[in-house]
Amino acid sequence: MSLHTTDAPQPDLRIVLTETLHPHEEHDSQRSRPLVERLATETVVINPPIVAPMGASQLLVLDGANRFHAFSHLGYPHILVQVAPYESGHIELKTWRHIVCDWQFDALSENINQLDDIQLHDGQHNSAIAHIIGRDEQVYALLSPVENTHERNAALRQVVRVYQQNATLQRTALAEPSEIWQLHPTAIAIVEFPHYQPADIIAAAKFKAYLPPGISRHIIQGRALKVNYPLDVLRDPTVSLGEKNEQLQAWIQRKLTNRQIRYYAESSYLFDE
Asked: pTM for this one?
C-alpha cells in the first residue's frame, strides 16, 4: 500500500458515539493506565484517535486504542476522532518493532518457553510468528503451530503479555539494532513481527481476534495533532451528538479564520507526548 504523493486533505474531524469504535488491538496497560488518570481531569483532547468506516455506522480504530480504552473506561459518551478510510490513498500500514527493556534475556526466554505451544529456537525461520534479537545480535525464531492470522494473533498476545507484565515495553520504527541499543541502554531484546494487510486489521476488529498492543503502525498523511478540543463538550450527556458536531464545525471554522491551523508535510518527531 503506497501513499499519495500529493498534499494531504484537511483532517475529517467528527464527534461520534464512543460505543461505535472497535479496536483491532489490545490496549497497552503500561500506557492506558496513566492515560485514564490524565483524561479524568484533563481539560482538552490533544490528539484524536484515527478511525476508518467499518459499515453500519461502526468505526475501526486504526490508531488510538489506548485513548479509546480510556474514554470507554471513564464512561464518556462521545469521542473526537479523525476519519481516514483505507481507500483514501493517504494511509500506509507498517509494523512497529518492540523493545524489551529493564529485564533479563534469560528470564524472557524462560517465560516464553513456558507458554503453551510456543517455543523459542535459534536462528531465523520462515514459519516463525515473530523473531527476537538479543543484545548479542543472536536471532531467535518464535514458533507455534498456528494455521491462520487469528491463531497467530492469539499466540502473539501471549508472548507480548510476558514482557508487558515483567519489563518495560517500548516501540520503534528503526530497523538497525545498533541504533536501537544506543538509544535504549536498558534494552535486552528487540521483537520483530510479521507484516499485516488492511484486511487483517479489519478482521481482527470484526471478530475480536486482536493484535497485541503496539504492533500495527498506520502512517496517516494529514494527521491532526495538538487539536486541544474541550473535553467538557464530549463529557456532557445533555447535548445531542448533532449539536456537538455543529459546535465542532464552528470551532474548526474559527481556527481557520484566525490562521490557527498549520499544515506540515514533513515527517515529524514530537517531544511532548
From this structure: 0.89
